[in-house]
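Record format v2
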Amino acid sequence: MADRTLLFVKPDGVKRGLVGEIIGRFERKGLRLVGLKMLTFTQELARKHYEEHVSKPFYPGLEEFVLSGPIVAMVWEGDDIIELTRTMMGKTKHTDAAPGTIRGDFAFSTTENLIHGSDSLERAKIEIANFFKPGELAA
Ligand code: UDP
Ligand code: MG
């Protein structure tokens, strides 16, 4: 199986009507969409997904934000999927994200930065399983 990653459009992206814009960029790049759903984070899922950040000072604000509305979770497949999707997302901080990237073009906050993407294949496996059952993904 080709490499896969877990991406989600955060609540700000859903509220701002940027779901189609974001999905379209990955489609036009030639990546394959293999899973898609809208859901709302629970506190339990947020703590699991962001386990590396739970003890950091910004976590309470991040948790409040990700619980603030529905997200659109996706699994994408393709060569060099992690590096490619991270490049297309742009840097975490809105002020560092280059124009032409999703965050560079649309984000004006470090917390509300529109999109999540797994940062390694190991994390992608864990994160995909946090959001999708195997039967919910295309073969
Ligand atoms: N975040 C934040 N303040 C910070 C750093 C990160 O609110 O100082 C939020 C932001 O939404 C970010 C998420 O926490 O996307 C996860 O942080 P990470 O460093 O993993 O960035 P990412 O992998 O999303 O680029
Ligand atoms: Mg991260």
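The two ends are 9 Å apart (CA to CA).
The pocket of uridine-5'-diphosphate (ligand 1) is lined by residues 53, 58, 61-62, 92, 110-111, 113, 116, 119 (CB under 6 Å).
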